[in-house]
Amino acid sequence: MRDPRSIVITGASSGIGEELARAYAAPGVALALSGRDSARLEAVAERCRAAGAAVETALVDAADRAAMAEWLSALDARAPVDLVIANAGISAGTGGGVESAEQARRIFQVNVDGVLNSVHPLLPGMQARRRGQIALMASLAGFRGMPGAPAYCASKAAVRVYGESLRGDLAGQGIGVTVICPGFVKSRMTAVNRFPMPFLMETDRAAQVIKSGLARNKARIAFPWPMAAAVWLLAALPVGLTDVLLRQAPRKG
Question: What rounded mean pLDDT belongs to the chain?
Answer without folding.
Answer: 91
